[in-house]
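pinging the channel bc i need a second pair of eyes. not urgent but kinda urgent?? the chain im working w is below, pasted from the shared doc
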Amino acid sequence: MTSGIIFNIQRYSIHDGPGIRTTVFLKGCPLKCWWCHNPESQNIHQEIAFWPDRCLDCGDCLKACADKALTRKNEGFLTDKNKCLLCASCAKACFTEARELVGKQITIEEVMEEIKQDIIFYDQSGGGVTFSGGEPLMQGQFLQELLLACQKEYIHTTVDTSGYAPWEVLKGISKLTNLFLYDIKLIDEEKHIKFTGVSNRLILDNLKRLLAEKTRIIVRIPIIPNINDDVDNILKTGRLMRSLGLKEVNLLPYHDSATGKYERRAETYHLMQVKTPTKEKMQDISSILADLGLNAVQQ
């Protein structure tokens, strides 16, 4: 495989692993977390995003669509997904960028061109490249080739993952990955299914298998009020980590910056009334984990 689909490349990242990093966001994710702040990442295929607040109702997109996938309605321009071939002619015609093609088909060479621009910053800061998503393991072969290309350039590699993938995929990249940022969202399986759409059994099994491969792992816990911030879940998560010999954990406080994305996608956002956890709450969680002998770092 020489190409895959990404939806962003972010340079000068400082929260996706050590040092200054370039973060490559691969499209596609098997989870549907209620708090997902990148809903545009979930579908592995390219898609057209619409920003109604930018639309001037000029009709240029309607004229540009040769497949007649657009129709003008009282509520605006609607897209017939059965007709739309994702040619992006409507997006190209829209000078206010109210329409945007989300997801770019890109080759290994094109990604590496972006990555290598900042090698000097990686070397000076102890940084490198982080592959995130979505869930990067959904494009396992593409990810493996990217990791191999980075290793050939002596670039430090990090994979930010939910761990929800066949073990063969994880095993295939484990020797090419210097650091895993591994999400642990909930310990209770029923709650995990409710709030993410999948069981956590595969995730926890893969975590144990990765540790057996002697890979370096930092667990990440997104702190979502009233979902996983209770003492029972934090204690169970910390005790599991301690039993596995893990010592580092990153705490990621929930934020509501993605609400507008769901509105633009006409999708339900389940956490409209949820606020970012207070500093006191985050400190309480850090203290619980610290008492278990874990190094808890707030991001």
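so The chain has two domains: 3-44+104-298, 47-102. and The chain has a mean pLDDT of 93. — does that match what u expected or am i reading it wrong
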